[in-house]
């Protein structure tokens, strides 16, 4: 599992499991069920039935994730493009916010689900707008303003302060204490959390007889939970410079769901709020997650009953603000519009399907739509003959030192660069750079041109071992000839920017030749490129001339210092 990902209850998977609970054990059947307490934490039979359904969803969802791990389906995550994941998580976050509206407004809203249920809920709200409880609305607004303001201040001054204010915890304690002292439950009619069982129940096998009835929700939990967790893990890995095994994530989350289901736990996934808390406190290893788990355990055994008086509107406000990171992904629309309008269309359509039906339906639609579009675009792509797929090595002698050679590698990109082959493209290219940084080459004054099959992004093979001759450290430049790059998407542009950034960190200068205006505009929009350093050229000779002139200027600068 990702080093900086904290696992816990996740609003999206909780909402999916709630659909199964309300479908099999609806609240309307509570009056028809004999109210008798069980021996499990003092819960009633009705409460245990509802919890058992959620545990069954968690168990079956975990089994599905483990089965996906065994089948190595984690390698198929390249189908989950950035626009699809962004739209799906945004749509799911919108559903979660909608589920909290009744608490934010203090209204009584019947359980509504199914296709277009999102719109039916808001239609019911507007039809019964007079039933909004003003006290709950004001307390919700106050809580949201305090949470957003303090979190923004924490983010702005995190480098100046050593201890970040846990505003969520402070708000929970303050709201519970105030509600207890003023008896808001009876005085103002505010709904509170109520009784919270103390401790952990003894392990028990989830009800196997209802597994067939919750298979739809189980698949939703397995896919949505995994995709959201993987996106968070990959974001952490990119930020802290390490890699994540996509298939290993399936095993980690699958076992987490299966084992926890024996203790009546609802489905779990990566918790965005807790993960963000780890970021802000400077966590670096899994020890921080262990400390967090111990703290949660202490709350379960000691502080749980004290939360009886927590107003539900305050809890709903904390959930809504915790989803801020997903909701602000609406800003991605501007990026996709400037980079690739097809990705923009995929984002919008995936989001619409997610809110009209469900997050898992939106995810499936986004993947199918993306694959269909790429399949339709590839046959129209230009192809180059095998004789043009070559790497040319130009060695420029530096006049300062006759024995020092500067090597320029020219790599032709001969295929479209999209989410299907972006990772392969980066792996092939970085493999060349890494070998060059760890090898040396005998000095040679003779210019030569070696022909090889260096880069075929759609092939499933590796680069030809004889494709490159390593160059000297700190004296290597790379020119990417984009004349064969007929089209691209946001994933391909992001990979080009990432390759450029990583190559610079390895002392390899990267230039781009034969770039279209749309590619240049997209790369400038997606990456923080140095505007004073020219990296885009009309042709390969122009890029070579620029490299040669830069080396000459460097030589004159060195002489001036002497």
From TrEMBL:
<dbReference type="Pfam" id="PF01740">
    <property type="entry name" value="STAS"/>
</dbReference>
<dbReference type="GO" id="GO:1905039">
    <property type="term" value="P:carboxylic acid transmembrane transport"/>
</dbReference>
<feature type="transmembrane region" description="Helical">
    <location>
        <begin position="351"/>
        <end position="375"/>
    </location>
</feature>
<feature type="transmembrane region" description="Helical">
    <location>
        <begin position="163"/>
        <end position="181"/>
    </location>
</feature>
<dbReference type="GO" id="GO:0016323">
    <property type="term" value="C:basolateral plasma membrane"/>
</dbReference>
<comment type="similarity">
    <text>Belongs to the SLC26A/SulP transporter (TC 2.A.53) family.</text>
</comment>
<feature type="transmembrane region" description="Helical">
    <location>
        <begin position="210"/>
        <end position="232"/>
    </location>
</feature>
<dbReference type="Pfam" id="PF00916">
    <property type="entry name" value="Sulfate_transp"/>
</dbReference>
<protein>
    <recommendedName>
        <fullName>Anion exchange transporter</fullName>
    </recommendedName>
</protein>
<keyword id="KW-0472">Membrane</keyword>
<dbReference type="GO" id="GO:0019532">
    <property type="term" value="P:oxalate transport"/>
</dbReference>
<dbReference type="InterPro" id="IPR011547">
    <property type="entry name" value="SLC26A/SulP_dom"/>
</dbReference>
<dbReference type="GO" id="GO:1902358">
    <property type="term" value="P:sulfate transmembrane transport"/>
</dbReference>
<feature type="transmembrane region" description="Helical">
    <location>
        <begin position="252"/>
        <end position="273"/>
    </location>
</feature>
<feature type="domain" description="STAS">
    <location>
        <begin position="398"/>
        <end position="547"/>
    </location>
</feature>
<keyword id="KW-0812">Transmembrane</keyword>
<dbReference type="GO" id="GO:0015705">
    <property type="term" value="P:iodide transport"/>
</dbReference>
<dbReference type="GO" id="GO:0016328">
    <property type="term" value="C:lateral plasma membrane"/>
</dbReference>
<dbReference type="InterPro" id="IPR002645">
    <property type="entry name" value="STAS_dom"/>
</dbReference>
<feature type="transmembrane region" description="Helical">
    <location>
        <begin position="134"/>
        <end position="151"/>
    </location>
</feature>
<keyword id="KW-0967">Endosome</keyword>
<feature type="transmembrane region" description="Helical">
    <location>
        <begin position="51"/>
        <end position="71"/>
    </location>
</feature>
<dbReference type="GO" id="GO:0016324">
    <property type="term" value="C:apical plasma membrane"/>
</dbReference>
<keyword id="KW-0406">Ion transport</keyword>
<dbReference type="InterPro" id="IPR036513">
    <property type="entry name" value="STAS_dom_sf"/>
</dbReference>
<dbReference type="GO" id="GO:0140900">
    <property type="term" value="F:chloride:bicarbonate antiporter activity"/>
</dbReference>
<feature type="transmembrane region" description="Helical">
    <location>
        <begin position="309"/>
        <end position="330"/>
    </location>
</feature>
<dbReference type="GO" id="GO:0055038">
    <property type="term" value="C:recycling endosome membrane"/>
</dbReference>
<feature type="transmembrane region" description="Helical">
    <location>
        <begin position="103"/>
        <end position="122"/>
    </location>
</feature>
<keyword id="KW-0039">Anion exchange</keyword>
<keyword id="KW-1133">Transmembrane helix</keyword>
<dbReference type="GO" id="GO:0005254">
    <property type="term" value="F:chloride channel activity"/>
</dbReference>
<keyword id="KW-0813">Transport</keyword>
<dbReference type="InterPro" id="IPR001902">
    <property type="entry name" value="SLC26A/SulP_fam"/>
</dbReference>
<keyword id="KW-1003">Cell membrane</keyword>
<feature type="transmembrane region" description="Helical">
    <location>
        <begin position="78"/>
        <end position="97"/>
    </location>
</feature>
